[in-house]
Amino acid sequence: MSFITHIPGIQPFQPAEPAPVQKGVGVLGLHEGRTLLLAMNRVAHARPVAACDLSPEKIAATRRELPDLFYTSEYDELLKRPDVDIVAIYTPDQQHGEHIARAFAAGKDVLCTKPLVNSLDDAARILAAGRASGRKLMVGQSTRFFEPFQRQRRDFAAGACGDLELADAHYIHRMDWFYEKSPWAATETDWVFLGLSHPLDLLRWYLGPIESVHAFGRRSDLGARFGVQGFDLYTVNVRSADGRLGRALGHYGCHELPSARNCIELMLYGSRGTSLAQYHDMRYLRTAPDGTEVREDSLYALRHYYFNSEVHGMHYGEFANYLEHFARALVDGTPHAPGLEEGVEVVCLMEAARRSARSGEPVALAPLLEQVGLGHG
Ligand SMILES: NC(=O)c1ccc[n+]([C@@H]2O[C@H](COP(=O)([O-])OP(=O)(O)OC[C@H]3O[C@@H](n4cnc5c(N)ncnc54)[C@H](O)[C@@H]3O)[C@@H](O)[C@H]2O)c1
Fold it and tell me: Which domains occur in the chain, in start order?
């Protein structure tokens, strides 16, 4: 096994130089949304201008850190502002549909955290609203934008894995602290959206359109104690339209064993090689062409950029990376991903997994895609 302990070219973190044209960002929801605001010193093509939350305490806390923004508890006040080009949405899952539709109606481009929405009705609504407005949307799929997953993608695109044959992803995280902070997580959404949005999006990213899903679910003891309405333990098998296989696992009531298994991992098995990306230890493992295992560990090189030198797991770097990707695409007119249609497709995939876990039967995606307006008929 060879180890890369120093990554050439990685410099200490420096704030980004502002680009000549920057998009103004208004952030809605100041828990995870605060992370995006603070991370914007890493972003060249966007700048923070406004923030909104119903909670005066959240506004006061964010104002102490960023005093020069416009603050409001009224979403319409944020939407009215001409200096807000992009509305970035970090409200609870079940409110995303309403908040996205209103942002489109106000003529704004939209960055929405995962999950994009958590029902097919909302998926249909935002797809129609986005098409009618002609504005752009990007889903803030943070895992795609975390360092090891970016490296894994670059190698994959360069052909290092050969033809992908199996993708295996999981997101496993004990969530009692989350229910205490955000009780809506137990009753207003489902872990297939809140948690499995990470591994299911990764499967869609690598396997392309998914044709069918077979899932099982259960409620953990911890989930039952917090009154979780759906399942908080899922195993999901998928088959892509071109016949390749993927598997996603989610468990939100477990006792973690972090040195054995990071909370998010993506394993790619290809005809020429295998690779593994990990969140949050920031490791990327891969096979070299001669079969040697290569391990890239960028935690100490990049922990300030990704974690603000805080405890593992905050999302400064990923949020900055995806905002920069989206804002630069808007300024330059280049593509961005995952966009509205791909995001809605992943919502259909999550809903198919939820339905399959309820019935125990495989679920085909085509009727769900048709229902939301993504059918090819
Ligand atoms: N890796 C990631 O990208 C990641 C990580 C965690 C959470 N999330 C997502 O971010 C979203 C928010 O999660 P969180 O952990 O910050 O939740 P949270 O409950 O801690 O915070 C939500 C915030 O939104 C505010 N809010 C609620 N309704 C509002 C409204 N109508 N108008 C204005 N403000 C309102 C609340 O006061 C609160 O401050 C969720 O959709 C969650 O799934 C994404």
Answer: 14-141 (3.40.50.720), 143-312+339-371 (3.30.360.10)
